[in-house]
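so my prof wants the structure for this chain in the C-alpha cells format not the other one, which i didnt know existed until like an hour ago. anyway here's the sequence
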Amino acid sequence: MRVLDALIEEIKGKKPGDPISSEAELCERHKVARETARRAVRVARERGLVETVWGKGSFVTKREPASDGSESN
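here's what i got, hopefully its the right format
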C-alpha cells in the first residue's frame, strides 16, 4: 500500500507526540480516495505507530522498529 509506506516513512522522521499528515493531506498528496488514506492511518494505528484523538488528529506514538534486527527487547 503506497500511502501506508509513505506514512510510515513520515513517522520515521518524527518523534513521539508529533502530528502526522491529516487524511485530507494524504488524499491530496497521493491522489487517493479518502477511504484509502483512512485505511493507511488505521493500519498505522493498529501497528501502534500512531494514536488518533477525535477532533485533534493523529500523533506519533513510536517509530517503526529497525528492520535489520538490531533493536533489542
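also thought this was worth mentioning. The CA atoms of residues 12 and 63 lie 5 Å apart.
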